[in-house]
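anyone else get weird line breaks when pasting these?? whatever heres mine. first is seq + tokens for prot A
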Amino acid sequence: MTQQVTRGIKISVETYFEGVYFKEYQIRFAFGYRITIENQSTDAVQLTSRFWKIKDALNKTEIVKGEGVIGEKPILQPGETHSYQSGCLLNSPFGAMKGHYNMDNFTSAKKFRVRIPSFKLSAPFALN
């Protein structure tokens, strides 16, 4: 598990390999990840948007931006957590992801960025 705390918001990431697929005339490697966002601060916050940089072993980079996470903009009171699962397809059996969440602090009315730590994606059959 990979973890990072930014301004009292703890991000934990677990990854898993889902399988090999044939899509758009190419072999694709499917990975899933589960993210837990924990508000360790003393303020209520809301996740408003996300930014991902996804890179595979063939040096292909994909940028993903959007509002919320999986259609939600969770509000976290102090001590609360929010978890969700998502995934990505790579052209190789190895890769990595990193990014950030944009959040609003309801106490200070300020916006801030929470770093999502870099985490590796790897198919177990390809490891030595």
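and prot B, same format (seq, then tokens)
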Amino acid sequence: MENATLAMEKESRLLLFPETEDGFDIDNLSCHDRLSKAQLSIRLREEEHNQSIPHLHSPTAWMALYADRYTCGEGGIIPAHGDLTFTILLFNPDSAGNPLEHFSAEEAGLHSFYCLLILAYFVASCIYIQPLWMALRKGGPMHTVLKVLSTALALQGISALFNYIHLARYARDGVGIPIMGSLAEFCDMVSQVSMLYMLLSLCVGWTLSKNRKPQSRPLQWDSSPASKALAMGGVATQGALLLWEQYEETEHHSYHAQRSIAGLLLISLRIILALLLASVLYTIISTERSALKRDFYLSFAKGCFIWFLCHPVLVLLSVVFNEHQREKVVTIGVILCQAISVVILYQLFLSRSLYWEVSSLSSVSLPLTMSRGGRGRY
């Protein structure tokens, strides 16, 4: 507070009201009732004053009102005093009682989550980087898919690292590094659109290739003008909605509890894309005779649906949680679900790529095959 003498002369004080009481509406109270119903009244007498708020079992929003001897017209004629300037700093103690953690109730726990996520990415990369690199160098029918999956996963890891750096600084100064939060959102957006382009291109390409050349090199990325046009249209629409959503949201989170029009449109788009992929995959599976290929397509459908539907489902389920928990539930849930989706697709394409590569050549190049021309000889 800049002018403590003036504050004492005016008998200035801050009135704090917790927004927990059912039916409590401060706008409907008279001036005197507002003064009398305040749970805390802090008198402004010194340049710096510390006030502890009673412990509450759950995070609570507080409303602060300024009052002095002239507030309800009881002090007579209001003298021509200058303005009284003061700053309020609120500190939320963490579970250990440390009051210098700057995280709000909506953000508490995200820092630890990103730390564990980065650790998991590091351990997984140490274990699987060599076999993945060998699979990428070898090539094969699944080579392009594996490159897109690796790029999307790397971008998710970089996004988690940038979020961790931003929140680590935010814990100390309450400001953080906003550019890191923006870079994290950008990396996640690029990962989202690359995965969308791959999934749409694969599904539409498989559908178009079923009638054109069903026997040639199955299950690879078979691009065509129609599949490219559909994939690019979906990518452009989702990219525009992601940019619109990030422009409207001020907090640095890649996923939100969708309180904006852009967020609701983005959820609608993901549901529509999931229905489109479901119809395409149903057409493929219903006409496929090979049980092994049907199992391949079903596993692929599982990974697709987890990727697209986890966000809408988690937003819907988040309404059962308290308001301060919804953002965290959506953010953590979507990141984990999409990581599971990528793992499912990795496992699917890595385990099946060699089989399809060999089986497509077996009828003409491998010995001791059960081809029609040789059945009588073996």
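btw re prot B: The chain has two domains: 4-67, 110-358. The radius of gyration is 30 Å.
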